[in-house]
Design brief:
By secondary structure, the chain is an alpha/beta fold. Helix content is about 35%, strand content about 15%. It has eleven helices and twelve strands. It has an eight-stranded parallel beta sheet with strand order 3-4-5-6-9-10-11-12. Helix 1 links the parallel strand 3 and strand 4. It is globular and about 55 Å long. The structure holds adenosine-2'-5'-diphosphate. Adenosine-2'-5'-diphosphate binds next to helix 9.
Length: about 300
């Protein structure tokens, strides 16, 4: 499988380039190199603080004749400080300006968490707005307006649990077509996947390599023995095994890399197929472990807890 099909038959390449924690000075080369070797899907977000550099790289790739705009699938995300119907289009227009694009292929609500305008990362309770004051359904109306105005070809969400998805599905005129969440062999989210499939919603896995963000974690996905043994037997790298597993579950993956050899290695995971036995062994690795645990949304007397975000 090389692409996921949307309701109108638009196809999103199943493997894209993640740009979270790619420093502005590194991301330009990463995006340009990625496009040169065949990546056609770039995953961005206003919050990553590097959309201008991503935009410069996309513009350069188009200028060099490597690709046309239509060849690319570009996703971005609405930051938490722009929840609320009236704030969506201005935030999206800023992202489009930064990326030097006329439209996005996919625009997502980044988190079911609302912050006061101008807040990058919250430090105290007063930095937040509770969802009772700015309901997700209200922000969704802004997303629908973006779709109707042609600024985004598809709209969806990220980090949403089943209850939050249900809340939107009840009132949506245009239903969310994508939920982007953390997924890898240690966090397989079977129940969420079934719910999304039932509701004709696609999934994208972020941190598909078990993100190295949690440096204190003793759990290292790519050092897991089962993954390493399968990698050895199939002449793949551990990263390719992790990516192939999620891809074979019908889920898109957006591994981040700023290193040319690893960019290529990750793209080449598309050339490998795991056997049913491999898939069964990998299925057993599920531990429900989140590397991105959401605890950064918890402050004293704040309106959000990690549990309120993840537990449906
Ligand atoms: P680097 O950018 O130096 O390649 P995730 O996408 O799960 O968040 O993981 C990204 C992390 O994994 C980054 O630190 C990235 O580092 C590293 N990484 C990306 N591709 C590979 C690979 N094929 N093998 C090992 N580490 C990788």
């Amino acid at each position: 499988m090389t692409a996921l099909k949307f309701r109108n038959n638009d196809e999103m390449p199943i493997l894209g380039l993640g740009t979270f924690r790619s420093e502005p000075n590194e991301v330009y080369n990463a995006v340009l190199s990625a496009i040169k070797i065949g990546y056609r899907h770039i995953d961005c977000a206003a919050a990553y603080g590097n959309e201008k550099e991503v935009g410069n790289a996309i513009a350069e790739a188009i200028k060099q004749g490597l690709v046309t705009r239509e060849d690319l699938w570009v996703t971005s995300k609405l930051w938490n400080a722009s929840h609320g119907e009236e704030n969506v289009i201005p935030a999206l227009k800023q992202t489009l300006e930064d990326l030097q694009l006329e439209y996005l292929d996919l625009y997502l609500i980044h988190w079911p968490v609302a912050l006061k305008k101008g807040t990058e990362m919250p430090e105290k309770a007063s930095d937040f707005i509770p969802l009772s004051e700015v309901p997700l359904t209200n922000t969704w109306k802004g997303m629908e307006a973006a779709l109707e105005q042609g600024l985004a070809k598809h709209i969806g969400v990220s980090n949403f649990n089943e209850n939050q998805l249900k809340e939107i599905l009840v009132t949506a005129v245009h239903q969310p077509e994508m939920n982007q969440v953390e997924m890898h062999p240690f966090l397989q989210q079977d129940a969420l996947q079934s719910f999304c499939v039932k509701n004709d919603m696609l999934l994208t896995a972020y941190a598909p390599l078990g993100s190295l963000v949690d440096d204190n974690s003793t759990l290292r996905l790519l050092e897991n023995d089962t993954i390493k043994n399968i990698a050895k037997a199939r002449r793949m790298s551990p990263a390719q095994v992790a990516l192939a597993y999620t891809i074979q579950r019908g889920i898109a993956v957006i591994p981040k890399s700023i290193n040319e050899a690893r960019l290529l290695q990750n793209l080449e995971s598309l050339n490998h197929t795991l056997t049913e036995d491999d898939m069964a062994l990998l299925k057993d690795l599920d531990k429900g472990h989140r590397f991105i645990d959401g605890k950064f949304w918890e402050v004293d007397n704040g309106p959000y807890t990690a549990d309120s975000i993840w537990k449906a």
